[in-house]
Amino acid sequence: MNPLTIFLLGLTLAWILATLLPVFWHKAVNVSLSLALLTNLIAAGFSAAIWLGFLQWETLKIPVDWWAGMDVTLHNQTLPPLQLEFNLDTLSAFFVFLVTSFSALVAVYSFKALQARHYRDYAHWITSAFNIFTWSTVMVLAAHDGVSLLISLEIMTLSFGYLVLYKHFLYQDDKYHVVKPEKQRKAFIAPQVYLMISHTSTVFLLLAVLLLAIHAGGWSYQDFIDDAQKLQSNLPILTAIFLFALAGLGIRAGLTPAHIWVSLVHPSSPTTTHALSLGIAIKVAIYLMYRFFFQFLPPQAWWGYLLLAVAVITALVNVWYAISSHDLKEALAYHSIENIGIICAGIGFGLIFWDQNPPLAYLGLVASLYHLLNHAVFKGLLYLATGAIDNLTHQTVDIDRLGGLIHKYSFTASMFLIGSFSISGFPPLNGFISEWLVLQTGLVGLYNLHGNLISSLAVLVGLLLLVASFALTAFCFYKMAGIALLGMPRLPEDERTEWEKEDVHLSMKGVMGLMAFLCLLLGTLPGVIAPQLVKAFEPLQIPDSFWNQNQLQWYQFQLPAQSVPLSSENYSLPLQVLAVIILLLGIAALSRWQFHSRVETRQPDLPWDCGEPLPQKTVHQYTSGALSYSLRKLFANKDIVSSETDYLPAKLVLSESLNNPQYITEIFRHNYSRLIGELLSLSEKFGKKVQNRDIRNYLKYVFWVTVIIFILYWLTAIILKGA
What we know:
By secondary structure, the chain is mainly alpha-helical. Among the domains are: 303-555 and 565-596 and 620-627, no CATH class; 693-723. 65% of the residues lie in helices and 2% in strands. It has helices at residues 3-24, 29-51, 90-113, 123-142, 146-172, 181-216, 221-226, 235-253, 260-265, 274-277, 284-296, 301-324, 328-352, 358-392, 405-408, 410-423, 430-448, 453-484, 506-524, 526-534, 573-596, 624-632, 661-690, 695-722, and strands at 60-63, 73-74, 77-78, 83-86. The strands form two sheets. The protein has a two-stranded antiparallel ribbon. The chain has a two-stranded antiparallel sheet with strand order 2-3. A hairpin with a 2-residue loop joins strand 2 and strand 3. The protein is globular. The two termini are 44 Å apart. 44% of the residues are buried.
């Protein structure tokens, strides 16, 4: 039997068992999580072996021959056989490794996390939906034909849609505290918005897959790959496939302007699954971009410029909304899309330089994959730390209602700080190295494009916007971590009585600690990790000469002679290990010295307030709105007023501002509503013109439609006769 058959059947049976147990046995949550943990660990091991080249499997084919024995022909050609195909090459195996390894960590984290009181009545179905979601994500990655891909994507969509119902159910029957109507409304519309967005994405992707299958004469990925070069001569079909794929995958990934669904939908799902859904599963769209743009289609340079433009706009817009957000989960959701923009910028550089400078294109792809991995790690850490805060404070994640958490829950707050430093791009953590590789690709590309003014200007503007988004990210996490973790508590003592007295359980601490260690490891050992990431791109036909003995070897990229390239000697393993040890010892020594040298200070009961009367239970501290006001006001427009008609779904709130909601939300809302209003007005005028109840017009329409159909039929007959 094909080993892949055993592997996929084993995963399917194990996850079915892990799913069914909680459904039929309410107290089987821990058993289900144990099965999920075991299954994911085995799957992670096998997929890692395939990714690193130790195993190689043949494609698993499942015939679906409901027209077997029938003579089904079209223009004297028999329809291609329909069969479901599954396979794991190095690219899909790398993503399966990410999904399953992080699912295993989430399973360990969930043993104690799901015991929180707000999860108590829903833990069994959260576990079930989590297992189906993990399985369907793996099936999407293992799919090796268009039909299997679309079916698996639909199952993945429905399973996560079920998870998004969590807040809807919780807020309808809240037993612990009064929930704001605005949060209830968001939770109510989140599943609807998610299903609408996901199915819109699937429609575009279906069109791309259909065009590929028609042109290739088959549904298999191999058929698409074999037919890729033939598409070069059919520019209209090639362009249509790319645009449909970009629209479908861009919507699913949350690229602007489709970013608005992410901050609404993902915070409505259980926090325990955030590390998987936004840290890993949303990157299935990135995996499919690698497939479509570099395998199924011959890459074109203008695609790269278009994707780069969308990517940098996505990064800048979403970090802006993150700054304006006052909820930890919502802000982290925006930052996830901002990092998707950074990843897509690397892919854009790969497309731009694919033909004229292949090594530079490969560097862009490696930078994008490295940042994809890094984002999964530091964003997973941030989501798990936020989940811990959510449990400890009984669902208090409003930034302005927290404060002083590092004094009460020092470990969880420290983990959030490490994730904040990493996502902000501070060395030696992992966010810095991959962001620098993306920038290095663009900087070297500027030199190679020095003869093309327009292309150079496009890359330069893209780099400037990326750097701006990096700086704004650092500012945003300065605001989030500074207000939520540092300072003094912002709620009176009587409102914090229900908060947990101690930090989270050791198992949750262990998972967060491992993620924090990975942030350091990925940031200090790029010379070891990057060559392993390149193995994932083996299906993209990267030449072996680009890498020398599994050590990072960057090409000169035609730089001036005085430039010194980054080589493996700069990243020798012993020096990196020594640097990490010295860094850890230094941090430990500094912490110990600060602890023993701490001076006793007396804190006054009330801060000095210029003589103004101050209530006993309040403290003078910056709010998140006040801290970001000086930056937000640069782009504020006081003249914008809300449109009478709002065309966003169910009065969808994009972000909030305590000072003036118009400054942030109405800029986008006003222009969006005006655009939709103009389209509807134009449509109404057109309708009144053609639908004027004049029988002569309708007879005219019938006549011209008949003539057009006759001409099309005549042309088709001539073409078929010539063929």
